[in-house]
Amino acid sequence: PEKQKNEIFIAPKTEMEKILTSVWQEVLKVDRVGVNDHFFALGGDSIKAIQVSVRLYRQGFELEPKNLFSFPILGDMVQFVKKLHHFSNSQTSDVNKMNDNKVTVLNVKDKQLNQHTLTKIQEKMPDIKIERIYPLAPFQEVIYEHAATEPDTNAYFEQIIWALEGELDINLFIQCFQQLVDRHDSLRTIIVQDEQAKPWQAVIHDVQMISEIKNLIEMTKQEQQKFLDQWMNENLSQGFKNDELMNRLCIFQLGNNEHKVVWSSHHLLCDGWSVSILIDELFQL
């Protein structure tokens, strides 16, 4: 596409414009986005189009990546989304949010997601505060169905390993990871089922990162490797279940200045590109 022309900047005014500009800024890593800005002129590409689509979906808007190729100007995209979702200023999203610790229905498109269903889901987890709840995206439904029909498969279980040399403040590292959890809905999301066994993804408020520390300093290198291999296999077999967070962290102390960090996650909520982005963000904290 042609380079962005020097046009007069038009700031977002409507709720929908503000939502889209916020998502574009986050994905494109730019300081500001105007209504007349061009997605690809700002550095967008097919991968970033997918990222925009996923982020908007989590806010209640079903937008396909290909739509950004048809409507690359933000203002045009806003009009398209309005027509597609009958958006109005009184409805900021189709997502269901918590209100005074009780799930309430806002603008529900899926007729199966009613107040009774939401209440039943909340009753299963009385001590957990749900921020919002929404259906699985089509690609998530495929992954969920495959994982459910083949429970022994580990095709969607991800174990990322970092070998860290040098001094490491373990508590600070965990605190930084906790900041990621606080920032990103996907790291605070669990899968819940309603009475009809239909899966929903629920974003949990105020989640404590699941983390553990293993001190292997007194072991020989051979013993450390044997322990790590056994732990990795057990962790893989454990997998993830409904109603629990789908990511966890373990830090292995191998020496005073030698550590290995294992982050386990599930492709249902964190795919390859999103994991890469999260890792980059983690090491910038």
Automatic annotation (TrEMBL):
InterPro entries: ACP-like_sf (IPR036736), CAT-like_dom_sf (IPR023213), Condensation_dom (IPR001242), PP-bd_ACP (IPR009081), Ppantetheine_attach_site (IPR006162)
GO molecular function (one): catalytic activity
Cofactor(s) this protein cannot do without: pantetheine 4'-phosphate
GO cellular component: cytoplasm
Stored Gene3D superfamilies: ACP-like, Chloramphenicol acetyltransferase-like domain
Biological process annotations from GO: amino acid activation for nonribosomal peptide biosynthetic process; antibiotic biosynthetic process; lipid biosynthetic process; secondary metabolite biosynthetic process
Pfam families xrefs: Condensation, PP-binding
Keywords on record: Antibiotic biosynthesis, Phosphopantetheine, Phosphoprotein
Annotated Carrier domain residues: 11-85
PANTHER family per record: FATTY ACID SYNTHASE, NONRIBOSOMAL PEPTIDE SYNTHETASE
Name of the molecule in the record: Non-ribosomal peptide synthetase
